[in-house]
Write a structure and sequence with these properties.
The chain is α+β, with helices and mostly antiparallel strands and about 425 residues long. The chain folds into 3 domains: about 5-80, no CATH class; about 110-285 and about 370-425, no CATH class; about 325-360, no CATH class. It is built from 14 helices and 13 strands. The strands form 4 sheets. The protein has a 4-stranded antiparallel sheet, covered by helices on one side. The protein has a 4-stranded antiparallel sheet with strand order 3-8-4-7, with helices on both faces. α3 crosses α11 (about 300-315). It is globular, with a radius of gyration of 28 Å. The N and C termini lie far apart (about 60 Å). Its EC number is 2.7.7.7. Keywords: DNA replication, DNA-binding, DNA-directed DNA polymerase, Nucleotidyltransferase, Transferase. It is an enzyme of class 2 (transferase). It catalyses: DNA(n) + a 2'-deoxyribonucleoside 5'-triphosphate = DNA(n+1) + diphosphate. This is DNA-directed DNA polymerase.
Length: about 425
């Protein structure tokens, strides 16, 4: 369909149904379906056939969206049509259901402190090769019985968002002895985020080499590359990457519950630089539990996916990076474009036909997102994964359990045991 005149033509032969994108045509069955539709609706030309397709497509989509609106109105009294995105809808639903009163960080240093501590989910291999040896695959009885086992944490972020999280009364306090912070309960009304120097004792390196504690974003210098990497990437430029490593940490921003775990498993606190104190409450839990219960009781996939989305999408709003927002200007002349290009906030431009789309940095930022919530959710998510590996799996299997790969909420492990599935019972 490359002109308006095409709408007056009859149904073309099969060879005209060719996709230049896929470089393929259609089958005889597919063409016969087109003929059947044409005859069923007594189409006189391609315009009428085109309209039938659009009506069926748009009407079906409208039915789905109206069902979505109806459910959102019923459970949250919010109309999705008033929101640009699902995260925006879920964030408003969260605040409405919990009636939470969250303080914004009014001190620039506090906000940067939190932003510097935000670290996403850890992903990467710990071992390059493993091979299972058990009765379910090619089994050599002369060798130890091993399994490659995949485990996934159900609703990891949902669990973390149900914990005690910072809400208000943020203040810098004088650092105390480390023992004081090690005694603070998970459900204490007061919580702490600390900036510390950590020592990773060498005697822990072998024990922790597959799943090091306290991941951090570090710049990988050329000197730390392997000989093969140096050979294949001679022009390598260092860049920051979230890594699990066995190096000491300096000015590491950490939630007190994670710090308690790290110290319990052998890391040493060399110095406490700063401490941010706050009041904490499980303020997101009612909303998370509500969606979880509704998802469990859902009668169809649409409802299940909706309530899953309402929990998953809300997390991103807790750590939305306002600094990455841009201002977009559209102008119709080169002279106007040059005015923006010459400004300090200019990022880039795209020339399209007879106008220019210009990306500018925002001149003013309103830091109105509770980044401390996103920071804490990410920290506690890592804590749960570490606790499961080091407090559940390692005590049971010891050296017979080795991590192969992890991606945020999942672990792929090599486990030496007669029957790993019997162990799960």
């Amino acid at each position: 369909m490359d002109s308006w005149e095409r709408f007056e033509e009859p149904l073309p032969p099969k060879e005209h149904f060719y996709s230049t994108l896929n470089e393929s045509g259609i089958s005889d069955e597919e063409y016969q379906h087109a003929v059947d539709v044409w005859q069923k609706y007594d189409c006189q030309n391609m315009g009428e056939y085109h309209d039938i397709y659009l009506r069926s497509d748009v009407v079906l989509l409208a039915d789905v969206f109206q069902s979505f609106r109806k459910m959102a109105m019923e459970y949250n009294q919010l109309d999705p049509a008033n929101f640009y995105t699902a995260p925006g809808l879920s964030w408003s639903a969260l605040l409405k259901k919990t009636n939470a009163q969250l303080d914004l960080l009014t001190e620039y240093d506090m906000n940067r402190f939190m932003e510097n501590g935000i670290r996403g989910g850890v992903c990467g291999p710990s071992r390059r090769y493993a091979r299972a040896n058990n009765p379910l695959v090619e089994h050599d009885p002369e060798k130890p019985t091993t399994y490659i086992f995949y485990l996934d944490a159900n609703n990891l972020y949902g669990w973390a968002m149900s914990q005690y999280l910072p809400v208000r009364e943020f203040e810098w306090v004088e650092p105390r002895e480390i023992d004081y912070y090690l005694r603070v309960k998970p459900d204490s009304r007061k919580g702490f985020i600390l900036e510390v120097d950590l020592e990773y004792p060498k005697e822990l390196h072998t024990l922790h080499d597959d799943y090091p504690l306290a991941p951090e974003a570090v710049e990988i210098p050329f000197e730390q590359l392997s000989p093969l990497q140096k050979q294949t990437c001679p022009s390598y430029k260092p860049y920051r990457k979230l890594t699990m490593n066995l190096m000491d940490k300096e000015k590491y921003v950490v939630h007190y519950r994670n710090l308690q775990f790290y110290v319990r498993h052998g890391l040493r606190v060399k110095k406490i630089h700063r401490v941010l104190k706050f009041r904490q409450e499980p303020w997101m839990q009612p909303y998370i539990d509500f969606n979880t219960q509704k998802r469990t009781a859902a009668k169809n996939d649409f409802e299940k996916n909706l309530f899953k989305l309402m929990n998953n999408s809300v997390f991103g709003k807790t750590m939305e990076n306002i600094r990455k927002r841009v201002s977009v200007k559209i102008v119709g002349s080169r002279e106007e474009a040059e005015e923006y290009v010459s400004q300090p906030g200019f990022v880039r431009y795209v020339e399209m036909l007879n106008f220019y789309v210009i990306h500018m940095k925002k001149a003013n930022l309103f830091l109105n997102k509770p980044v401390y919530t996103g920071f804490t959710v990410l920290e506690l998510s890592k804590l749960l994964m570490y606790e499961f590996y080091y407090d559940k799996l390692k005590p049971k299997y010891g050296d017979r359990c080795r991590l192969l790969y992890t991606d945020t909420d999942s672990l792929i492990m090599e486990i030496q045991t007669p029957d790993v599935y019997a162990d799960c019972l």
